[in-house]
Design goal:
Elements lengths: L1 E2 L8 E4 L2 E11 L7 E8 L5 E7 L3 E4 L2 E12 L2 E6 L5 E5 L14 E7 L5 E5 L3 E9 L12 E6 L4 E5 L7 E5 L5 E5 L2
Antiparallel strand pairs: 1-6, 2-3, 2-6, 3-4, 4-5, 7-8, 7-10, 8-9, 10-11, 12-13, 12-15, 13-14, 15-16
Length: about 190
């Protein structure tokens, strides 16, 4: 058993007969009344996000997890195949478990959290950013840069990302996996 002082981002807890991962939290100490912790929880079974408030000192059921490095191999419909980098065991995960499945490139290493009691995969943590090649982008119109103008571009995984007008086909760009937004152009 843990208490609200142990709450941190990425902590997996049992709550309402389900397993949730804490995405965000904020300790609040109002001037009047007891302290509390405001959290944003994501269900690891169905992906729904809910807001919850725990009073200070509230006991929470922590789920023991192990984190392993897996390599993304390939996708087959809505099934994504990964291989453990240490034991070379392969596992298959459903598309809904992944946060940004359209940004996964074959050969990418990800961290998968596994429930230590049931050996069931809980969540997939992608790298903070990923470098992908632009496969299709319309040419930018010269003189159309009065504001931060963007255009849609398709990357090698099939995802569509809004990029600045100077990005062309064949350019490599860095994408933030949490938001799916363009970060910068990568020179090689």
């Amino acid at each position: 058993m843990a208490s609200t002082s142990d709450i941190r981002n990425g902590l997996c807890i049992k709550y309402n007969n389900d397993i949730y991962k804490i995405i965000e939290f904020l300790h609040v100490k109002p001037g009047k009344g007891p302290a509390f912790v405001r959290t944003k929880l994501k269900s690891l079974t169905n992906g729904k996000v809910l807001d919850n408030t725990f009073s200070a000192g509230h006991k929470i059921d922590e789920v023991r997890v192990e984190t392993h490095t897996f390599q993304y191999l390939y996708a087959e419909g809505d099934q994504f195949h990964f291989m453990n980098n240490e034991s070379f065991e392969q596992i298959t995960l459903d598309k809904k478990v992944l946060d940004a499945p359209d940004l996964l490139k074959e050969g990418t290493n990800v961290m998968i959290q596994i429930n230590a009691e049931t050996e069931a995969p809980l969540s997939v943590d992608m790298p903070a950013s990923i470098v992908l090649e632009v496969t299709y982008a319309e040419p930018g119109v010269k003189g159309n840069t009065a504001t931060n103008a963007t255009k849609p571009a398709t990357v090698e995984t099939g995802a569509t990302v809004n990029v600045p007008l100077f990005i062309n086909e064949g350019d490599k760009i860095k994408i933030d996996t949490a938001s799916g937004n363009y970060m910068e152009r990568v020179k090689e």
